[in-house]
Amino acid sequence: KHKAVTRLMEEQLPEKVVAILRDAGKVADELGCRAYVVGGFVRDLILRYENLDVDMVIEGEGIAFANAFAKRFGCRVKSHERFGTAVIVFPDRFKIDVATARLEYYEKPGALPTVELSSLKLDLYRRDFTINTLAAVLNPRNFGELIDFFGAQRDIKEKAIRVLHNLSFVEDPTRLLRAIRFEQRYGFTMAKHTQSLIKNAVKLNLLQRISGERFLNELKAIFEEENFLSAVNRIKEFNLVKYIHPAINLNEEEMAILERARDVLTWYKLLYMEDKIEDWLVLFLAISDQLKDDEILEVGKRLSIIGKYRMNVLIARADARKALNMLQLKLTPVSFKQGKILKNSDVYKMLKPLPIENILHIMAKTVSSNTKKAISNYITHLKACKPLLHGDDLKRLGVPEGPLYSEILSLLLEKRLDEKIKTKADEEKMVKEILSQNQKVRVSK
Questions:
Q1: Cβ(38)–Cβ(31) below 8 Å
Q2: Which of 65, 137, 317, 335 would be 145's cystine partner, CB 3.0–4.6 Å?
Q3: Domains of the chain with bracketed CATH
Q4: What pTM does this model have?
């Protein structure tokens, strides 16, 4: 008798999702086709790991199934005729991926697949690892019945990551990085034969064949994992770091920066700041910390790190390093002894031009607690500081329009940062003094 995952579904999934799976089975029955939920969704059910990414495979017409389902339940469909795939989007934005059981031919290693029709078994055979080949029936008569052609349950039990065939990494070299990601996420170990296939793939330089963009996507996925540090260690063990850049060697110091970057990101997230950040970019800056400025731009180009903002982050690296050196220099015990106090306004001027990702990177890079404190104070307090008076107020107080406006506002900001003035009344008093003396505003540069 086949094992069923019906009970696991009902225990672990929201009722809404179980209802959707049952409805999908009914629609498939009416269309005379078989519907399955497959892959990571089923794997994580068995591992009791939360995953609501529903992937369905239809033996029959995937797109026709998606359209029929969407029509009945008021959803939208986005379909790709060439691949026989569709995405069903529910009114509350919940999504289901639907594929037609198919066989993929990769025309050359690392290329995008060309598709032929096939059965479920062949469809699952093209997956990356055995643990991702499970399927569960959705048709009402056998709802929840588990289908395991390739020993996935055994490998889950033995905590093994195993490829399905010897050419797996040749077919898709990004699987090298995915093997590491799954291994570290679940605390599994790669099967011996799979490890030797990886070593062989590295010798054959297969990762060189994939586009920079696909490599970066896998790297980002690793950075999103909770155990990304152990995954990075594994990347190092298999000698895959050179594919980011040959000059990266991830010695102890660099791994320590990466670890501190993780802690800084955790700290930053707990602040619930307005600024949304790209975590992976901070970790990328940490992992490539020892590269020269031209080398990092070269990596950015090769990995297709696109977008004006992201490029700015790579370009700002040099300025961030200067700011860090300056902060560390001015925050030494010697400076304190000499009575050279670094003012808040100085810290503000150094850090304000930098993207937040660069600031978090230098916060992770420094081992000076005074520097860390200064950066932390900038992020939590100084960054959002503004004068209480606006242009309209200056007009009301009789300030003539022109460059004097911005000079006065800069001076007010500086005094607020340094806590020389606190209230709106203080600011007005200062503006009046400036006007009465009619002096040129001296903004300390």
A1: no
A2: 137
A3: 6-158 (3.30.460.10), 159-243 (1.10.110.30), 244-385 (1.10.3090.10), 391-437 (no CATH)
A4: 0.84
